[in-house]
Write a structure and sequence with these properties.
The protein is an alpha/beta fold. It folds into two domains: 3-248 and 455-477, Aldehyde Dehydrogenase, Chain A, domain 1, CATH 3.40.605.10; 252-436, Aldehyde Dehydrogenase, Chain A, domain 2, CATH 3.40.309.10. It is 38% helix and 23% strand. It has 16 helices and 23 strands. The chain has a seven-stranded mixed sheet, with helices on both faces. The chain has a six-stranded mixed sheet with strand order 10-9-8-11-12-22, with helices on both faces. The N and C termini lie far apart (74 Å). The structure holds nicotinamide-adenine-dinucleotide (NAD). The site of nicotinamide-adenine-dinucleotide (NAD) has 28 residues, from helix 8 and helix 9. Its EC number is 1.2.1.27. Residues 16-477 form the Aldehyde dehydrogenase domain. It is an enzyme of class 1 (oxidoreductase). It holds the Pfam family Aldedh.
């Protein structure tokens, strides 16, 4: 069985680690590959290659870096089908959804091709008589990205193009559950002309993450994954003196107001809750129905959930594929069990859904709960599966308070026709990304992505202008030439004039 390798110094290698873990095709439940689990020697090898590459890469003009990114952009577009097929084979999501993922990642590459513009500093002539000031942004050095299973192309592309365009050497540690796409991405960047050592992949599990966090040569860590691990990565990385952005899990609520367009709202919620089998950090997992809309909302949602087309990701007519692993399937089933035990109304039960011919695949049907309350596990925990919880709130303020009391604050949405309510919501809700009649308000590449509260540890959001700031250090330079020097030694705090 083939072993999915690291990409170190531009070459595929199984490295020094002898441990391998299984990679599944979630639709069949079969092991298709093993992945090399790297050790500290493998990380050291990547660091050595990055250290060799960094001085020249940092000195490479941003326009030259951008030209490589332009070629990488074209190659990603040309290999869109191959990348999507790899995602579907290891993650399970439907191919059309996988292509959407690649496209959203590609947009960050496109944004990063503006490196010469993005790295422009500011210049102020005459901050004082004969004195000028300007700023510049310089790369950090060797930086690392640690990514989750649910977007094996898009999330690495939130990081890599930004890190590389700004002159850093980037080491990616992808999820061990779907690690192949990372290898293809690194190969594409090399084919585009990226010098070896600038974009590397080290495969591994938590030991590799901890090796990265402890390695003194790594200046910054960009992490995306679940909240407990994000918290750990942030605490450990910053304690070791690194710059860290750690994006965590989510429990995204949508408020459904009585004045909304109910049919369109139901369509939006179905896509947002069950697309990619609910394995999206921006999935809507809680619908808060305000006042009299609840009964009609639940009835219409239930009709859709019962008729979801579930099957292999390779068949584009399916709306939902399998979950990523058998272990995750058991966890999602267990959480649905807990909802029943804790008194929620299970309106649609997807637990025993079987896809004919794929009985060993990690499939589950869509589930819909009504009368969910804050004390239930299905409310408190991120299920990360195709389960939508409906809560009932008597009025808008109660619904808003539910969201603001949640420890998570990634995305949220409101469905209403009333501009005043929408404005009050966007102004007062405590979350990082907000949709008004938009269920999954993922910011475009030229904005930045990130949540609040336990959904993000650190100061910088991902990609866009925040990505440039995260991967660079600023210098402020003040200059004066002999003609501008008006007196001898000055002993007072300089002031302008
Ligand atoms: P995860 O936290 O299990 O894994 C993320 C990464 O951390 C992986 O590379 C994994 O190898 C590593 N890891 C796992 N356990 C570790 C440990 N104990 N110590 C150190 N490293 C460890 O997440 P996942 O299951 O791969 O992905 C799903 C999670 O990611 C969900 O919680 C989802 O909400 C979140 N996510 C968040 C965003 C966001 O932008 N906020 C985006 C995508 C996914």
């Amino acid at each position: 069985m083939t072993v999915i390798p690291h990409v170190i110094a531009g070459k595929h290698t199984e490295g020094h680690g002898t441990h391998r873990t299984e990679v599944f095709n979630p639709a069949t439940g079969q092991v298709t590959h093993h992945v090399a689990i790297g050790n500290s020697q493998d990380l050291d090898a990547a660091i050595a290659a990055a250290s060799d590459a960094f001085p020249a890469w940092a000195e490479t003009p941003p326009l030259t870096r951008a030209r490589i990114l332009f070629r990488a952009r074209d190659l990603i577009e040309a290999r869109m089908n191959d990348l999507a097929a790899l995602i579907t084979a290891e993650h399970g999501k439907v191919l059309s959804d996988a292509k959407g993922e690649v496209t959203r990642g590609l947009e960050v590459v496109e944004y990063a091709t503006a490196a010469p513009e993005l790295l422009k500093g500011e210049y102020t002539e005459q901050v004082s008589r004969g004195v000028d000031a300007y700023t510049m942004r310089q790369p950090l050095g060797i930086v690392a990205g640690i990514t989750p299973f649910n977007f094996p192309v898009m999330v690495p592309l939130w990081m890599a193009p930004m890190a590389i365009a700004t002159g850093n050497c980037f080491i990616l540690k992808p999820s061990e559950r779907d690690p192949s796409a990372a290898v293809m991405l690194a190969d594409i960047f090399h084919e585009a002309g990226l010098p070896k050592g600038v974009f590397q992949v080290v495969q591994g599990d938590k030991d590799m993450v901890n090796a990265i966090l402890g390695h003194p040569a790594i200046q910054a860590v960009s992490f995306v994954g679940s909240t407990p691990i994000a918290r750990h990565v942030y605490a450990t990385g910053t304690a070791a003196g690194k710059r860290v952005q750690a994006l965590g899990g989510a429990k995204n609520h949508a408020i459904v107001m009585p004045d909304c367009d109910l049919d369109k709202t139901v369509d939006a919620l179905i896509g947002a809750a069950y697309g990619s089998a609910g394995e999206r950090c921006m999935a809507i997992s809680v619908a808060v129905a305000v006042g009299p809309v609840a009964d009609a909302l639940v009835t219409k949602l239930a009709d859709h959930v019962r008729s979801l087309k579930i099957g292999t990701g390779t068949d584009n007519s399916n709306e939902m594929g399998p979950l990523v692993t058998g272990q995750h399937l058991s966890r999602v089933r267990g959480l649905v069990d807990s909802g029943v035990e804790q008194g929620a109304t299970l309106v649609v039960d997807g637990r025993d859904h079987v896809v004919s011919g794929y009985e060993k695949g990690f499939f589950i049907g869509g589930s819909l709960f009504d009368n969910v309350t804050e004390r239930m596990r299905i409310y408190q925990e991120e299920i990360f599966g195709p389960v939508l919880c409906v809560m009932r709130a008597p009025d808008f303020d109660t619904a808003l308070n539910i969201i603001n009391d949640s420890p998570y604050g990634n995305g949220t949405a409101i469905f209403t026709r009333d501009g005043d309510t929408a404005r009050t919501f966007t102004h007062n809700v405590k979350a990082g990304m907000i949709g008004v009649n938009v269920p999954i308000p993922v910011p475009m590449a030229f904005h930045s992505f990130g949540g609040w509260k336990d959904s993000l540890f650190g100061d910088h959001h991902m990609h866009g202008p925040e990505g440039v700031r995260f991967f660079t250090r600023m210098k402020a330079i003040t200059t004066r030439w002999p003609a501008g020097i008006r007196s001898g030694a000055e002993f007072i705090m300089p002031t302008h004039g």
